[in-house]
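dumping this here so i dont lose it
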């Protein structure tokens, strides 16, 4: 059953996994369209996407320079023709119809405004992962992020933090789900140790910068969190 939804994959130097994740998403027969943004990759990611497109119905954009994850996600959202969006990381393995359904169904039924999915096969178990709110696997309504698309373009790896703060500041319902048997390699599995450390530092800095540059939103989101906890306790 196809739903009114767009799958968006943003890729940067993911030549080892890009074809497999594109195949996985296509073979779910779950989405109305698949958009892939090649964010200035320096490896063969772009070539592989173009070759895949020859036999598959996808929309592809190839940026000449690396603009950052936030820019790529914002571009994918702008290009999407469907009401519901599902963002999927380019380095995943074993993405299935079950995963797509688990991400999107709570949004479609109105039980959640955004769903964040945590792969079960990753470095930190989903039940104890302190970074699960930064997951790249997320489903939401396009209309709910239209007002922050321009901000998304500028925050790089802080994009998930920005989206989370935006939803919390508007008292939106966020649901977390575990995506069983979905494989997501850590940076240490994908690259050399020193490069992985540098990437973590860069990402951390961009996340912190995003939080402080949107301090009013952060304060508002925290206010709603406190109010919700208070109402639950009462």
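and the seq i came up w/
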């Amino acid at each position: 059953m196809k739903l009114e939804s767009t799958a968006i994959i943003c890729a940067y130097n993911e030549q080892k996994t890009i074809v497999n994740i594109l195949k996985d998403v296509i073979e779910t027969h779950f989405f109305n369209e698949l958009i892939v943004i090649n964010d200035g990759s320096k490896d063969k990611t772009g070539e592989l996407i173009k070759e895949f497109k020859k036999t598959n119905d996808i929309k592809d954009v190839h940026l000449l320079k690396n603009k950052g994850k936030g820019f790529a996600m914002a571009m994918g959202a702008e290009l999407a023709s469907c009401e519901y969006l599902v963002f999927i990381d380019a380095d995943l393995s074993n993405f299935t119809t079950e995963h797509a359904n688990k991400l999107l169904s709570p949004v479609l039924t109105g039980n959640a405004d955004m769903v964040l999915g945590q792969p079960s096969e990753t470095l930190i178990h989903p039940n104890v992962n302190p970074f699960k709110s930064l997951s790249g696997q997320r489903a939401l309504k396009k209309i709910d992020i239209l007002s922050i698309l321009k901000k998304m373009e500028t925050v790089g790896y802080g994009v998930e933090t920005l989206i989370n703060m935006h939803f919390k500041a508007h008292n939106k319902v966020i649901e977390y789900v575990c995506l069983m048997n979905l494989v997501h390699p850590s940076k240490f599995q994908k690259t050399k140790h020193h490069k992985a450390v540098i990437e973590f530092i860069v990402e951390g800095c961009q996340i912190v910068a995003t939080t402080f540059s949107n301090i009013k939103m952060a304060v508002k989101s925290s206010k709603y969190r406190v109010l919700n906890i208070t109402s639950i306790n009462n």
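Residues 193-213 form the longest helix (21 residues).
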